[in-house]
Design a protein that fits this description.
single chain; 446 residues; alpha/beta; five-stranded antiparallel beta sheet; five-stranded parallel beta sheet
């Protein structure tokens, strides 16, 4: 066991200063050795049976035998040395509570000749995501997932509009909520606007509210979702479905920060942080005239790509454990056989995380003894054709979309046929359950 080095007077003075910081911080020498730590670090990351002073940071945080960059990860110390300035990265650290996502910021300490003599590392635990099976929120630890999560951490404290782009079922609402929870507005409301579930005739009233008597049936003043989101975050889900006629009003709201209730003359001041999401190729829609270019540039100030499940296949076992934990009672424990897990990992998952969750919820019903076996999985996971073709990721070079289906007619046909559950109907149409129920209500079929 290495003997902790005695801190120099300069390092000791630095540690005394860092004691006033509420976030965990450590001091490193250029050889990766931890020289000192403030009390916040000791409380959050230190344990009596795991000494850290005098030990290499990569061994303590990652259990690596070599620095992070030699283990295939980004090393902030190397980058900070090259820049002679700060570097920031999202890592998964081993902590007394298990693996956790930690936002790491490393700052070099320079002498009079601008040579690095030490580093100060600030560690911030990411509370809205988990690297272990968890009962709520985002779960993952693959490189693709961590890249998206790191983008969330970087943009959350700003006021920039965020555009989440990814296939259906990749967790856009959870990522939007993560942006909200990591922002300075986390104490305010998080308001979801499902743009695909609102007919054009109701869109303006739902978004901006209306005055009493503004139209037939308006018996009293009603605040809109923009007003409800005051002090918090407004999440426009599936913004690619906003009708062109409403896009100009949405643009005016974002540009001016003001709106008027339907039937009102006075202007109201809006106060929200905008997060939008879509699975549609907005740049292609701008090119063919179905989405306004000026609105696109307003909402796409900070785009974040959400990877499909096939690009984060290493997260499948973690997600399986998570959904099996979430789906049952506290006293019931459901596990999965290795053969069944292998089937899940071999699948392409065109429906992404939503599809995986649905498969596991179904399998749980057959696992009477608490063990999910291969025979409990759907037939199409056994090499038979999948009921839906794999979804190819949209690119700017993709061919023009096929003519839109008459979704309402398909819904009426399915309801009349009565062969599928409402969840199965929503999946077959490529709609979220929330959107499907809104369509049913609009058609008078709920």
């Amino acid at each position: 066991m290495p003997t902790p080095p005695s801190p120099t007077p300069q390092v000791q003075a630095l540690v005394s200063y860092l004691e006033h910081e509420s976030q965990p911080m450590i001091v490193l020498d250029p050889d990766y050795n931890i020289l000192a730590a403030n009390t916040a670090y000791q409380r959050q990351f230190g344990t009596a049976d795991r000494p850290y002073l005098g030990h290499k940071c990569f061994r303590v945080s990652h259990h690596y035998d070599v620095p992070c960059d030699q283990a295939g990860e980004h090393c902030p110390m190397r980058r900070a040395f090259e820049l002679k300035g700060p570097d920031r990265v999202l890592h998964i650290h081993h902590t007394p509570r298990g693996p956790e996502h930690v936002d790491v910021e490393l700052r070099p300490i320079l002498d009079g000749d601008r040579q690095v003599v030490a580093y100060v590392e600030r560690l911030t635990t990411v509370k809205h995501a988990s690297a272990r099976a968890n009962q709520a929120g985002l779960v993952g630890r693959s490189p693709a997932f961590n890249t998206a999560l790191e983008s969330v951490q970087r943009v959350a404290r700003s006021q920039l509009p965020v555009l989440l782009q990814g296939e259906s079922g990749t967790g856009k609402e959870l990522f939007a909520r993560a942006v909200h929870e990591a922002s300075d507005r986390h104490g305010g409301p998080f308001v979801v606007v499902d743009c695909s579930g609102l007919p054009e005739t109701l869109f303006e009233s739902e978004l901006f509210g209306h005055e009493k008597g503004a139209f037939t049936g308006a018996m009293h003043r009603k605040p809109g979702l923009v007003e409800t989101a005051a002090g918090g975050t407004l999440f426009l889900d599936e913004i690619g479905d906003v009708p062109l006629g409403m896009q100009v009003k949405l643009l005016r709201l974002i540009e001016s920060g003001t709106f008027r209730r339907v039937g009102a003359t006075e202007t109201q001041q809006a106060d929200f942080r905008l997060v939008a999401a879509t699975h549609k190729p907005l740049q292609q829609m701008v090119a063919d005239g179905s989405f306004r270019q000026d609105l696109y540039y307003r909402i796409a100030a900070f785009p974040i790509y959400l990877p499909p499940l096939r690009e984060r296949a290493g997260d499948i076992p973690l997600l399986v454990d998570t959904f099996l934990q979430r789906g049952g009672k506290a006293a019931s424990t459901v596990v999965i056989q290795p053969a069944a897990m292998a089937r899940l990992q071999a699948h392409n998952w065109p429906g992404n995380i939503r599809e995986l969750r649905n498969v596991l919820e179904r399998a749980r019903l057959f696992a009477d003894d608490g063990v999910v076996r291969p025979e409990h999985l759907p037939e199409w996971l056994h090499g038979r054709p999948h009921p839906l073709p794999p979804a190819a990721p949209a690119t700017s070079a993709s061919p023009p979309p096929a003519p839109a289906r008459d979704v309402d007619a398909e819904i009426r046909r399915m309801v009349q046929d009565g062969q599928l559950s409402r969840r199965e109907m929503a999946e077959s149409l490529g709609l979220s359950e929330r959107t499907f129920y809104r369509r049913l209500k609009a058609l008078g079929l709920s």
